[in-house]
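Reopening this ticket.

The earlier resolution said the output was attached, but the attachment link was broken on my side. Pasting everything inline this time so it's all in one place.
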Amino acid sequence: MCATPPGCNGAWPEGGCHDRSHHNGALIMLELLDMGKYGTFIWASYGASVLVIGGLMIRILRQRKKAKAVLRDIEHQMKSTPSS
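Inline output:
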């Protein structure tokens, strides 16, 4: 029989002992995600960063598409213009 960590009822569907590393890992993950009284600020900052970086990526891809179209037009004009 294994000892159960504090706050755990020990009821697993398999009926065996739990894996303590999994339990401790879950606690560490919860503490990491909680971030105390600064959690709201930190998660809002992460969200704002994702929005800004995503917006910049969209802008860059649109500019790239326009630049390719302009280059294609210039190349087409150069091919259709007779040389002197």
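Reporter confirms the inline version is readable. DSSP finds two helices and no strands in the chain. The chain has two domains: 1-34, 36-80.
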